[in-house]
Amino acid sequence: MRFNTRAVHAGQAPDPTTGAIMTPIYQTSTYVQEAPGKHKGYDYSRTANPTRTALEANLAALEDARFGVAFSSGCAAANTVMNLLQQGDHVVAGNDLYGGTYRLFTKVYARYGIEFTFVDSTRPEALEQAFRPNTRLLWLETPSNPLLRVTDIAAAARLARARGARVVVDNTFATPYLQTPLALGADFVVHSTTKYLGGHSDVVGGAILLNDEETAQRLHFFQNAVGGVPGPQDCWLVLRGTKTLGVRMERHCANAARIAGWLAEHPRVAHVNYPGLASHPGHEIVKRQMRAGGGMISLEVKGTLEQSVRFVCATKLFALAESLGGVESLLEHPASMTHASIPREERMKAGLSDGLIRLSVGIEDVDDLIADLEGGFRAAFGG
Q: Which of 5, 208, 213, 320 is the most buried (most CB within 10 A)?
């Protein structure tokens, strides 16, 4: 089946009891057993829940994966991948990461003897030099958050595999509609399902998708043992979102491409980061591994930090808020919001300036969005 058909149907057969076309919300904590240990596949909802089972199957189908494991947040999913490591292991990661991932690595797992090296993952020589004999994991975001850098997944996976390391790709920005990292050689795909997969800014969740059965069993063990599982209504909301993922992403991408081109010509804009622009340094890789440039843009305005702050506070349709990937447009100031947990020195070293602004372009009429941004420029600069 093709993508949009899988999005609507995978993991979601009509309910056998009633014929309901929508997967029921199994709002139950426990299940009656016929005899001790004899049940219908479910005994306790932390361990498994039918609504969660449907979501895990659906997400696996979208990522061309054999197994899906759902969590209560993207951070919980990332944490569970890290549970596979042990003291003394080394991780190579991109130096342009979501602030919550950086915080998890440096403030939690570094305390337990896991070592981290952060590099520009778009540079193959930097990746190669970062590997050590004890490197067990390569963690990538592509496009990255918030600089929209693009890493060649297939090339990075070959490099890691030759050194005995496994590859994780955070595919939250691209979604499986635009990019399928497992097909390019990655071992794990991680998602914050809060974002494009849910798509409506009304649920928090996460997921890991993979093909290796033994590792999937270990992840399910951690899912149950640690307990960071999504509730059935959260799973149902993400399932509601994935049904329209393909059609939403088409609009997100079309709007973002139009806005990025307009921003690139704007006299108040110093620089635009958007993978769909031909001027983007990773554009050739984008053409190989992505369907389109995505719905995320970051930019720097020509002016002071105060003017950047006035800009993000002045728009009306672009709401000032963290998160991304909903049908509504959002904007934020990474240095003081989503990436504030990264020390300023590290942010600057990675190229994340204090004046950077990140846009999550929604599905509204694009001319209204452009007019709203122009109003933000007028408020920030006058005229």
A: 208
